[in-house]
Amino acid sequence: MTINKDLQREREGCTFDTQELTHWLDGSAKKTFQRRETEDFFLKDPDLRTKMSPKYLSHKEVYEDAIQKSCLVLKKVREFQDMGKGGDITIYSQVLGGMLGSAMLKDGNPLSLHYVMFIPTIMGQGTPEQQSQWITRAWFGNIIGTYAQTELGHGTFIRGLETTSTYDPSTQEFVLNSPTLTSFKWWPGGLGQTANYAVVVAQLYTKGECKGIHPFIVQLRDEGTHEPLPGIKIGEIGTKLGMNGTNNGFLGFENYRIPREHMLMKNSQVLKDGTYVKAPNSKLTYGTMMFVRVVLVRDASRYLSKACTIAIRYSAVRKQGQIKASGPETQIIDYVTQQYKLFPVLAACFAFSMAADYIWEMYNNVNAELDQGELERLPEVRIEKAFCKLHLTFFCLIPYFCSSVRKIQLAVENMERRIKTGMSYEDAWNATSIELSQAAESHCRVFLVETFINGAKGLTSLSKNLQEVLLQLCELYSIHWVLQKVGDFLRFSCLNTQDVSVLQKRLEELLLMIRPNAVGIVDGFDIRDEILNSALGAYDGNVYQHLFDEAMKSPLNQESVNQSYHSHLKPFMKSNL
Asked: Helix, strand, coil: what percent of the chain each, to 5?
């Protein structure tokens, strides 16, 4: 491989061992080896290589290609496991929800929700009997499922879902209906043409009373012919800006009956006579969505690292203008304005990664407690509150935290003031919602900074050089957000105008310190070119050759003269208008 000379010089000037960073991010040298081995196994398979960019395919072709590759990928997973490699959860998460999966299925995987949401929901919400009935069939792909919660008219307001499931004790069945157009399920991945089953979240009615939302296992298509069953209205929602291989769909019901046993009854139950047995906590129904939102934090870190790798490598290669008139063209990474755009985002990769580790550990601990009937910590892991536990006394002692506490306090005081003037609690909440959302945003930043600082303190096993780089990133991330929200800090903390000047100077110093190691840091992410899928971010830095090669893949470049010249353009040019 011929490496771009500017990129090679960047790597030679790096002050730490990029392999050490890779091993730390993976968890150990052994885990790095296992990850690379997994990537080799899948990405070197010629059948899984993308022959043509999805951008050049029709919407129908994108889906058909995604289905073909998805089935091949899962066959390869089984082959990999038969070789005694890759734990069940690890390998599935890599090829379905991880960056490896995005390399093989560049426009989304129609089978992702089957493993990421359908199976986890049954495991988390089903009784042991229901799990034994469904999990094996689902795990081995005998049935394909999805998770149908979001509706055309309701997304995050789950309590407002309109799909109904009414219990009929005379037949011991639930009758599902979509009473309005807005009650149609809308967006679930794999629902359009792929899944033949779904976990459907609907309003439960029994003995004439609504008992709120509950999950049900619903067969959508015939297991032999794949035709939609009577009473099922199902289809695909059409082309989107991206992820068109995901096969997002819609679903409606018309007096569709399912057996009583198809209600997932680990937490709540409907007895044969229609008697409703309430769950110990109504929030237990949200378990699957909590799992997905925890995963999203991890994904944010991963995809941010891809973006940083592309942007920083290209910034080291691309030259534009001159800082000194007598000097050569300048690498754009040498412009402080470019560093200011890139390096805080680079630091955010680590902040999100450490936050994801914390949240994942908390999620698993709470899940274990739920299995033992302990519900006290359940609210902590809900995403609107999950980012942190607020210790007011501790935070008030620290300024980079005092701002968040004061913003929360002020929002509460303003809500109480409005209530005292005669407003209802709900109207007061709405009137204060700008302040509340800003306080929540500040609260999340506190958590991200805190976990980054705590994580940076625990790096004693790393070399001094790598510790120094990570501490620089941590400090940059913290100072960046203080300066971004300087008005809040001047207003709510002990920060003064002289401090702002000191922090600005320190930020500029940190940009200068990080600059020699920027390429080394993104190299430490160890993201293969096939996963990056970027002409600008390739490891060798030969961006202009890669751009030209990609351009030549266009179908319009497969012939020197397009047929439209003869049918339209030439007659027009000869018509002497």
From this structure: 60, 10, 30
DSSP 328: P
Q: Could you tell me which residues come within 8 angstroms of residue 454 by beta carbon, excluding any fewer than 6 positions away? A: 354
- pLDDT tens digits, 512-571: 999 999 999 999 999 999 999 999 999 999 999 999 999 999 999 999 999 999 999 999
Give the DSSP letter of residue 177: E
Query: Which tokens is 232 given?
Result: 């099922």
| Nearest partner of 215 among 170, 248, 255, 185, judged by Cα | 185
Spatial distance between the Cα atoms of 216 and 149, rounded to a whole number of angstroms: 11
More confident residue, 460 or 536: 536
For the chain, list the domains and their CATH numbers.
140-279 (2.40.110.10)
Give the tokens for residue 120.
Answer: 């986890």
Q: How far is CA 379 from CA 382, 385, 438, in A?
A: 5, 7, 21
Q: How confident is the model at residue 424 (pLDDT cuts 50, 70, 90)?
A: very high
pLDDT given at position 404: 77
Q: Output the pTM of the full model.
A: 0.88
Are 384 and 326 spatial neighbours (Cβ–Cβ below 8 Å)?
Answer: no
**Of 255, 155, 235, 252, residue with least CA distance to 192:** 235
Tell me the two tokens of residue 51: 């022959």
Q: How many CB atoms lie within 10 A of CB 275?
A: 12
Q: Name residues whose C-beta falls within 8 Å of residue 312's C-beta, 6 or more positions apart in sequence.
A: 333, 342, 346, 518, 519, 521, 522
Q: Which helix (H) or strand (E) holds 216?
A: strand 209-219
Residue 114 CB contacts under 8 Å (≥ 6 apart), including other chains: 138, 144, 145, 146, 190, 195
HEC string for 68-104: HHHHHHHHHHHHHHHCCCCCHHHHHHHHHHCHHHHHH
Structure tokens at 148: 């149908």
Look at residue 298 in the predicted model and tell me its pLDDT.
Answer: 85
Give CA–CA dist 220/243, Å, rounded.
23
pLDDT digits (tens, 9 = 90+) for 29-60: 999 999 999 999 999 999 888 878 888 999 99
Rounded-to-integer distance, Cα 502 and Cα 79, Å: 58
Sign of CA dihedral 465, 466, 467, 473: positive
